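Entry 0007
Protein: RagB/SusD family nutrient uptake outer membrane protein
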Amino acid sequence: MKIKIFILGLCALSFVSCKKWFEPDPENLKSEDQMYDDSRFAQGFLNTTYRTIPTYYNNSDVATDDAVTNVRTNEYLQIATGSWTASYNPLNFWNTGYGSLLYLNLFLANSEKVNWANDPEVAKLFNMRLRGEAFGLRALYMYYLVRNHGGIASNGELLGVPLIKEYQTSTSDFNIPRASFKDCINQILTDLDSAEYYLPMEYNDINNANQIPEKFRNVTNSPGNYSRVMGTHSRQLFNGLIAKSFKARAALLAASPAFQHASNNFSWEAAANAAAEIINYKGGANALPANGHTFYNNQGEIDGLSQGNNPPEIIWRENIQTNNGDQEAQNLPPSLFGNGFINPTQNLVDAFPMVNGYPINHANSGFTAANPYANRDPRLTHYIIYNGAQAGINNTPIYTTSQSTTVDALNNRETSTRTGYYMKKRLRMDVNRNPNSTSNKSRYLPRIRYTEMYLTYAEAANEAWGPTGTGTHSFSAYDVIKAIRRRAGIGLTNNDAYLEECKTDKDKMRQLIRNERRIELSFESFRFWDLRRWKEDLNTTARGIDLVSGNYTPITVETRTYQSYMLYGPIPQSETIKFNNLYQNNGWE
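Output (structure tokens):
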């Protein structure tokens, strides 16, 4: 059957919506078999799916105990305060996910028929790389579909989403039941195995045949042919290291408390082993870059990026954006010509330990309520603008309490803070948003950081083998957390005595690891998903702070109204109405 497809736009129809194809004028169409002789047209199906990969900074943090927003109509504020339903779901990934799977399945069904290049070696290499990308991207989209929509269904089973592994035409049956959660994770891992089979770990030019990875040597011995396909110009496309990272993400999700079920036998050990592969590739527990925790503001490093290179902290990123000040315009305090969109909570500030490593409520911490920001974890100053902290191109002190006479004062105006704090992480401090002298800079948006993978290992290894157990590896959860905290500047004068206290207690180490994850990945869109996969309380009240009569005084900012079943997101109501084989997740009916 010859399927008519748009040349331009490549309409992203999901499997549930492609009941029929549109029929534009013939001159605007190409038929399916024309992709065999037009490699750019064929590759367009793959490229389209890169454009809809979920953004790393989705600001879902404002739906958690880490932050609120001063935009009262924000969709994440709405779901945190009672408006989340199966028909109103800002986290809905259904149409995007299945629309991309449609393209990827079409590509995989036809890629081996495409004339990728005149040179047979180059053509085979292109087909390998592109098929590897397609398998990897299919796993990526399935991961987000399962994360966003998997859960305990109304029939009591732990379900994922419908598994669509073949290209569907307009005559296909779309009333497909949800596969089990286990089968979905297995399919993700299988596709990632296929991606690794076809792809190099990273894309690099080579100078001699000895540098060609072994699995490609039966295809070519030509350094030029290899570099043409697998060289530096392909960087930021899906590669083997990215596939390993998504294995770690999928395995961590599958092992988490929210997905423990008789039908799911994925283990913490499997998650730890998946993450350990990445740590070993990086160079071990102590191989994280010294400035990795300030990746967003490492100005010289960012400005020096070229040829698709990654900073040492980054596994995968989006393309460089030049002359950009979007994050600063959105989030700087109003006195620095920003809109103060994300306001960190007192809850998050309290999570930062003292520089000696002790939590602020520990007897040995030395915390003083009258001077709450003194001798704290240095990441607090890197990530959050608190009362009196400096920010912007001139290191301007920002005064956030209601007693301040500046526009940055608590609840002073719509763009002012609601909590007494502004977000500093994600922002370059050398960007000037003054409309009279605007100066923007280069930036990139991450997709995967090495630190995330190290934290994944720490969490899974502690659950599998305890704080100091190593499994088959040379490092433990304790080793990884010690390295992360030392990088941050914690416990340098007392051998991190609190960490030493935790390393003999699995439960205490669990809480420490979760807290380190909370801090290190703050404002990077992890907290909302972490709380739910841990089955933690979503209804912790968001708190702020004010200076009243010379004393720092906690204030209530926003209460949460989540229901217990919201550990899992809903299947879109529009789909359950259309297809009676789709069980809704429990509670969303």
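Curator remark: Residues 1-52+93-266 form a domain with the Serine Threonine Protein Phosphatase 5, Tetratricopeptide repeat fold (CATH 1.25.40). The first helix runs from residue 39 to 50.
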